[in-house]
Amino acid sequence: MAPTTIPAQAPADAIGDLRMFTLTTGWAQRLSDGAVLHTTQGVLRWTVASPSTPETVIAVSYVGAETARALTVPAGAEGQTTVQSWTTGDGGATWSAQGGFAVLGFSPTLIGTLDFVDPLHGWFSELQDDPGVTGTALYRTVDGGARWSKVAVVGTAGPRAAGQITPAPTGCVQLTAAFISSTTGWLTGTCSMGPPPLYVSRD
Fold it and tell me: Which phi and psi angles does 69 have, rounded to 5°?
């Protein structure tokens, strides 16, 4: 009899996106639902520390042991939607709503990443799938999330967006950004065909 293959599934309490700032204090996300977790007692004890909203957390960036930034969208959001920015400075006990910004081509399976280098400067790489553009739209904030602006789009464009984006090699439409300062960062990712590109910004 042929062996039966059973797909592996993460336990309901499994965590990912772990970042510890001391031996006892750090952040993570629960893999089953994306809930933000915080600990002051090491990795065996976690407190749910998500923003108090019915919206879905799509990205988190850990700025310090007690400080984080998060982005949420309405439950079931797809296509054009509004992303809401949140900030906490007390380990997620309380969150303050910051600015919101509209995105195109949002897909719950292509979410992207949030990267803050300090409490003020951050970037959201939105992996968008829109009839006009398929690729990554990069949004930037310089005031902790109160205001956001689209600063770049890398990918493949339909006729209505031609000339408005930086073209990416074929099959390279899911790129994300990582910054080391308020001015310097890189954009790269995986590609379905060929080697991935590497873009750099110093402004």
Answer: -125, 145
Pick the closest to residue 104 from 140, 75, 137, 70 (CA basis).
Answer: 137
pTM: 0.83
Query: What tens digit of pLDDT does each residue of 49-82 get?
Result: 999 999 999 999 999 999 999 999 998 887 788 9
Spatial separation of the C-alpha atoms in residues 156 and 134, rounded to whole Å? 5
Report d(CA 137, CA 176) in Å as an integer: 9
For the CA atoms of 81, 181, 51, 29, the dihedral, rounded to the nearest 10 degrees, stands at: 100
- The length of the chain is 203
Contact 83, 100 (CB under 8 A): yes
Phi and psi of 103, rounded to 5°? -130, 155
